[in-house]
Structure formats: structure tokens, C-alpha cells
Write a structure and sequence with these properties.
By secondary structure, the chain is an alpha/beta fold. The chain contains 12 helices and 18 strands. Helix 2 (93-106) runs parallel beside helix 10 and helix 9 crosses helix 10. The chain is globular, with a radius of gyration of 23 Å. GO terms for molecular function: 4 iron, 4 sulfur cluster binding; lyase activity; metal ion binding. This is FeMo cofactor biosynthesis protein NifB.
Length: 425
Amino acid sequence: MKTKDFDVHHHPCFNAEAKGQFGRVHLPVAPKCNIKCNYCNRKYDCTNESRPGVTSKVLSPHQALAYMEKVLELEPRISVAGIAGPGDPLANPGATLETLRLIRERFPGLILCLATNGLALPAYVDDLASLSVSHVTVTINAIDPKIGSQIYAWVRDGKVVYRGERGAGLLLERQLEGVTALKEKGIMVKVNTIVVPGINEEHVIQVAEKMASLGVDLFNCIPMYPTRETPFEDIAEPDPVLISRLRDQAARYLPQMRHCTRCRADAVGLLGEDRAKELASCLRACATLPLKGDEDRPYVAVATREGLLVNLHLGEAASFQIWRRTESGGFEPVEERPAPRPGGGLKRWLTLSEILKDCRAVLVAGLGENPRQVLEEAGIKAYEMTGFIEEGLKAVYEGGAPGLFKARRQGCSGGCRGGGGLGCL
């Protein structure tokens, strides 16, 4: 289908005048989160609650593309494809960036956006810009770590968990860095601040003033939604009079979003006329589709020294042999592709997932959990094994020999010699 040529003014969250004319769809492809907010309970399977963090199903990137196609057929007024959870999009970088890439290629006229807590934002601003993501929302609840420490139970950076003011301070540092980088790229930025009575209500205006100094485009004071089984479940929702007063005061610094509907992670339709419940069956149907399009991924990548055995860990492979199945049912090597240079953390594995994007699997002697997650979020299954390449290829293409692949979760941490000791970290 032909996509309308939308411009940035057709985003109903950033432009109130577009609210009744254009809609949005949130694609729920990001289940993991890297912070724990004291007001958040990400209970997935609930069709009767309208709040951030809730979705009926979580989709893979290819499932999300199929869902996007069906949604546009049913609701042609959709102008925006966004990712807002149910966790944090950038805590799921492989799935998020792959989804955005697929949507951009299939529907080049759609506005792309995402909402994030900002912890991982600085690392992915370039990626977002390269995909022409034009709108980003960052939730910033405090610019004082003492106040932030009362809102966040913990902040996880990689494998390290920080609590208290140290965690809140790290989060704030990344948020400010990320917002600054977004504005340098010309991306429109909205800042959401969750108003928690007794915690940050008198601090909101300071947040707005700071955000104005960074060039933020829009500010959104959101009343906290009291949610069961959270530390803040007994804090009353701030009343409309308080929210109106805060918006009026914050308006001295930034334009205000006054039409927010606190959208679900699978919201779809016009603001105020959400069709998530109506389209829940469509969402569930798409969630049963294959996780990835194997027809678009005819190859398998192999980490090998000599082209006969699978005998290299992911982190020590300087290149990957690319194999395919022949029409006669055999297997043949196609080419060799260089691996990304060691270092760079998750960016290294995102680059690798792009290099291997036409591969359905990669055969390795071992790998760490971080690269496994990034590759599999991008639709590339990582198999750990040792032995003849063709035996591994048979198992991938034919589903046989289930005992061939060995779970070697600990093998890479001590045995990977690649990258000067960096391995698969």
C-alpha cells in the first residue's frame, strides 16, 4: 500500500491541532527495562487498563511489521509509528532498532518516534538519527538526585545495579547528555515529568526550566497513576487543579502538552479514541506469526578457523563464513564477512546484527549473554556447538539433531580469547 507523505506537524502528541486528524500506533516490542520506578508495575496481559507499561502482547520486529500493515488497513489516519515499551525501548536495542528499520523501509512516509527513560539514550542517538526518527520523548522526573532517589528503586547500567542517589545521579547524567545530543541532531524532544504528590510536585518547575535551557520542544506534566503492587500504590493521584497550576507555571519556560492520555504500550488510533481493545485480537494474531522472516534470511553465519569446524567463540572471530542451502539439499559457503572490531559494548553486537541481517542463525563455539540477546532480538538465533559445520547447518535448516547444540553459558566468560580479552562483553 502507498503511504501518505506525513510531515512532523502530523504527530498528535507533539501538535494538539493534529489530535483529531492523525493517530499513532505503539508497537510493543521492548519488554525489558533498565530502571525500576516506584510507580510502575508492567503487567502485560490486561486490556482494561489505560496506562504506560501495559500491553496485551509483546511482538518481535517482524510481527510488529505485520501488525503495522494490518493497522494501516483498518485505520488509515495513523501517521506515527512509535515504540514506548512495555519496558524501555533502548534497553531492548536490537528489537527496537530492527523494528524501526523495518517500518522505515516499508512505510517511508510514517513519522517514527520512541519514548525512553534516557539511561541508554546517548549510545543510540546516531542510530535514531540514521533511521530518521524525528520525535523522541524522554521521561525526566527530577534534576536533583536526592529527589530522584525517592522515585527510582534502582538503575541498571549493563550488569551493574545502582541504588539511591548514585543511581538517580547516573540516570540524570545520561538523560541530560541524551537530550543535548538529540537536539544537536535536530530531533524534536518532548520531556514527560510524572508528578508524584509529596515527592516532586514542587520540583517540576525546576525540571521545566532546565529542559528549556537544553532546547527541549515540549513539556508534559503527567499525573502519576496509582498502581497496585508498587511502592507508590497508596499515594493519591494528583488532582486536576494541581496539574493545571503546574502546567501554567511550567509554561513560562516551555510549551505544554495538555492533551496527554497516558497511553498504553500498545495504544492505537486517535488520541482520545484509542482502539487498543478493539484491535487486541489483531495484535494477538500477529503475536502468533513466525518471530522472524526466514524467507528473507537464507543464510547461516559460522565462526570457524579453517572452514570445516565450528571452533571459534563469537568474540574471537575476526570474520564469519556465510553458508546457504543448495537446491540439491546440500550446503555451500557463499562468502566471508568481517566482524566488527572488538570493544564498544552493545554497539559492537548491534553492528554485527546488521552485518548478519540476512542470516537466520549464527554457529559459534560460545558467546556471552549480551550478544546473544542483541542477535536474537534482531531475529538471528545464536547456536553454541563444536563440531563439523555441516552437522550444525543440518540442525538449523532441518530442525534435527536436537542434542547437537550444547548450552555453554559459562564457556565464553573464561575461554574467549578474542579481542584482547574483551571477548563477548
